Known about the structure:
By secondary structure, the protein is α+β, with helices and mostly antiparallel strands. It is 63% helix and 17% strand. It contains ten helices and eight strands.
Amino acid sequence: MNALIVAxxxxxxxxxxPITLQQAREEGRQSTTALTALQDLEVxxxxxxxxxxxxxxxLSVNGFVGKRWLGRRQTFDLVPDVNNPGExxxxxxxxxxxxxxxxxxxxxxxxxxYDRAVWKQLEQAGVLRDAQASQAKEEADTxxxxxxxxxxxxxxxxxxxxxLDATVKRSEEQLERARALFLAGRVGKVEEISALxxxxxxxxxxxxxxxxxxxxxxxxAVWLTRPGTQPVEAVDPGVLQSEPGPAPTIxxxxxxxxxxxxxLKALEARVSAAELERAIARADYIPKLSAQGIYTRQGPDxxxxxxxxxxxxxxxxxxxxxxxxxxxxxxPAQTKRAEANIRKAQLQLAQSAREIxxxxxxxxxxxxxxxxxARLAAENREAAVQGLNLxxxxxxxxxxxxxxxxxxxxxxxxxELSLLENRIDVExxxxxxxxxxxxxMSPGETK
Length: 447
């Protein structure tokens, strides 16, 4: 009956796609948030290339074709004085309108020889790229942890349904026993009716859990950038069949976090970038030296400029020295602003380090508490199994009632659900601690 109900509810849905924990971790690192961080890293890499371009030779070619019109104009020319041989006089001359061609072809080659600001800007871009790489790793760890959490949430719902299904089967068996004992005249009709009501309630709980299953399937699929309509199934990672391992010491956890946490590396790099900003500001005190070569061809005739290489050639080579002696106190102001940004970056780094230590301690304490809770839950389940066996034996012997069996069944169901909940919480707490430590790496991945 129970299988028939489930088959009816799921008949319109396609078969779920199995997903292992390892697949969830790998695909989680390719989630939208993680990929967005990688695009930011690509932007940072291109910023490095942009800064490097200022140190490479710059070559530009230009040319134009035009026409120049000159209107009437009056000029003064020196001409010999006919009355005084050997002397000259100025006379006013009015020229006619003229027009000439205007053609130009040229190339300019520039090369920076020394510019401290440009070199420091390139170094700063590299540091910011490294900071973004660490930030991308931080985002990937966060995305992977969320995928792990959603995977275990789905697996917990699947396992919960298995517990509820087993409860339904126990209720069906109890109904059959109560009915047989009633027919044998050993118990009253009320025992059969109670068992029937209990079975109905258990079936309702099982059917209602399907809604949570579909919700958890959708949340995992969407986070893994799969279609939200695709049903998925969390493959048993085997955690329920093995004893959980111990937690690392708090000293080990904090030490690893200080060394490996990507966020700390990103913030350390931003401190270095702020220090380089100060060096860039101070570079205004130092002269800049560059070389430039200019080649041009100009003339009023297109043939001379574009087809006659021996004519109209002009070449200029020069060294440019630029030294900003006084710029209205901009450089000291920019230096002080950079120093303030250095202090801000250092304060943020120190604060984040303290917060990460607190995060590690909290995650560590949570894992230890969950380990204890899981052991207690396992002991409770064993006791509940013994209680149910005893209640069923008493009922078969006619010394007990359906109510006693029902209480024992509920106790076992609650104990099984509690064990399931705590055992999965142990795994989530363990991965949360690993993420806080910066040690959340998929197999084959390197720092």
